[in-house]
Amino acid sequence: MRKITVSKTIVSILLVAVMSIGMIGCGSGTTSSTLPANNDQSSSNTQSNTPTLEPNNISPINVVWYPNESSNTHEDIRAEVGRLIEQATGRTVVNKTTTDYTIAIQSIASGSADIAMAMGAVGYIEAKNQNPEIDVLFVNADQNGSLDEAKYFAWICVRKDDAEQYKSGDSYSIDNIKDKKMSFVSNSSTSGFRVPTSSIISHFASDNLTEDDVLPDGDFFSEVYFGQSHQGSTVNLVTGNADVAAFCDIELAPYIQLKEGIENTVGAVYEVKPGAEAPFDAYVGKEFVVIACTPVFNGPNAYNPMNLSADEIEAIRNLFTSAEVANNELLFYDASVEGAFGLYKQGSSYGYVLTTDSWYDPYRQ
């Protein structure tokens, strides 16, 4: 019987990138911890004239992050989000980083976190199933600031050096991934597990697969790894620990560049770009090919109202859906600027917009 495997390479990388001890007060009033403990620094951009509420509740607002945004390379981004929430509410913010999707999901469901940033649809639905009070705060928009094309892409990829064996005519396909070593992100990841496994089950319909068949104890793959983040799953691929890997474009965007083909299409070749931050600084120039690509609704930022008033929720929404935040280069960065780093590329996403819980109903199926 196979067991879930996380490569030694990924464990060591994530431990170095994510874990540190203590809690530090930041210039904006934002502090940080891991679940259970981590360290975060603050950054301070130009202050806004947006009025701050007079808080009735003086307890901190706890913001939890998935592993993808919990590395040291994202600490300025986390601090900026904390600063903005504090600006809107007048309350101190504590950023909580994680090394596991489940910790973040259970934190927002239980109320030990008040806001969960950059969730996926599946993680949000899992949290809401545990606690119906969980709701969508806002979501990153498309490049026109609307929901019309507010999507990112779930990829299944292989190393460029091995790509020929996945050729199907003039293109690529997942026809030959059976019995390979496979890396997913987490079984709570939308684009790093649920969408790719649905694609695999659909593609191999004659095999009558279920989700269990593509898990570590199943018979479809020779081995199954979970990288615990999109970065981790990608490193599993480029280091050769896995033959095939699932991850998404939006989490990899700060680290990679298109080398051949058209973005977010089958056959596109990407490489780790010069100057890439950890954990990719050791893999500059490594190339991979997209052999399957599926659009996914942009993931929600969610809240638990237990420790937030209706006025505070409205104030946070008003600020984060403003032009001020849409033009915040730590959250929406210009990929044409060398060394720019942030949550979302300006060319793919312009600001945050409101949406409803029902927008994610397709993923409940």
List keywords for this structure.
single chain, 365 residues, alpha/beta, D-Maltodextrin-Binding Protein, domain 2, 2 domains, seven-stranded mixed β-sheet, 18 strands
Can you put this structure into words, describing what you see?
The protein is an alpha/beta fold and 365 residues long. The protein has two domains: 8-146 and 299-364, 3-Layer(aba) Sandwich (D-Maltodextrin-Binding Protein, domain 2); 151-297, D-Maltodextrin-Binding Protein, domain 2 (3-Layer(aba) Sandwich). It is 25% helix and 22% strand. It has helices at 8-18, 75-89, 101-110, 121-130, 190-203, 230-238, 249-252, 310-320, 323-326, 361-364, and strands spanning 31-34, 61-65, 93-97, 115-117, 135-140, 151-159, 167-168, 171-172, 181-184, 223-226, 244-248, 256-260, 269-272, 287-297, 300-303, 332-333, 344-345, 352-353. Strands 1-3-2-4-15-5-18 form a seven-stranded mixed β-sheet, sandwiched between helices. A seven-stranded mixed β-sheet has the order 10-9-11-6-14-13-12. Helix 1 (8-18) crosses helix 6 (230-238) and helix 3 (101-110) crosses helix 4. The longest helix has 15 residues, at 75-89. The chain is globular and about 65 Å long.
